[in-house]
Amino acid sequence: MYGWIWRHLPGNAWLKALLSLVLALGVVYLLFQYVFPWAEPLLPFNDVTVDEGLGAVSGTV
Amino acid sequence: MSVRVIVRTFSELCITFGALIVLFVTYVLYWTGVKADAAMDGQLDQLEDRWANGAMTSAELEAAGGSSDVTEDGNPPPPEPYEDGKPFAVMYIPRLGDNWTKPVLENTKTGTLKKGLGHYASTAQLGQKGNFAVAGHRRTYGDPFKDFPKLRKGDAVVLNDGRTWFTYRIENKKPYKTLPSDIAVIDPVPRKSGFTDSGRYLTLTTCEPEWGHSHRLIVWAYLDSTQPVDDGKPEALRR
After folding, report:
1. Does pTM top 0.90 for this prediction?
2. Is Transmembrane helix one of the keywords (chain A) (predicted)?
3. Which of B107, B180, B186 is the closest to A47 by Cβ?
């Protein structure tokens, strides 16, 4: 997988390393910006309210 | 496909998955706090701006024919309805730290609680008869209620809505542990709180255990005193 990416990056080893770094940072950015904010509410740390049930004025989280 | 390729790919996937988990833990433990601190500062700034510019001072309000800071029965005037999802007050709890200052926003949705404490929209307004109930994160998003179990009877919970300082005093000996379904804890006269008559109460809720969600911790407080902001900080915050 990573070998395949390495082989398909253009340039010499230095450029490949630089591009790999950019790719990795890009993935981390996407994770922190979009994927983790989506996944985090699925964890229990958001449950701080007492359940007001259906049709309550304020939602429970 | 050779065995070598399969083993190598499997190893790479395992390493990737491990790295993903490390990143996610970093996000939950650290990054949510960084974001929440910035968001809370933003909310506090927003409040200060509004109080400095838009909102009427008590004198202006009086001149406009509105109620003054204290009504005839010696109680603060009813505030305007709170704007959904917007900050309307600042909370100080000296027991949780001298610099413990958090904005209180209207409603208790997930997005709101990322930016501060959330006021249960169905409960009373600040300083009014009934129960002013507020929820906050125990962990993640700045850990506002991390030290919740340290709260004890007599501790001050001070709020400022731009016009009035409200000093509430905690009534519980120590925080009351209950189930998430126990909505009676935010009733106008909260059950199990020890209060029997109607009055001006405050309820704080957060999760228990620290990293779980099976229970809730509750403290109740009663309104001890109020004073106009022009008179300076209340005694509970002077040191």
Report:
1. no
2. yes
3. B180
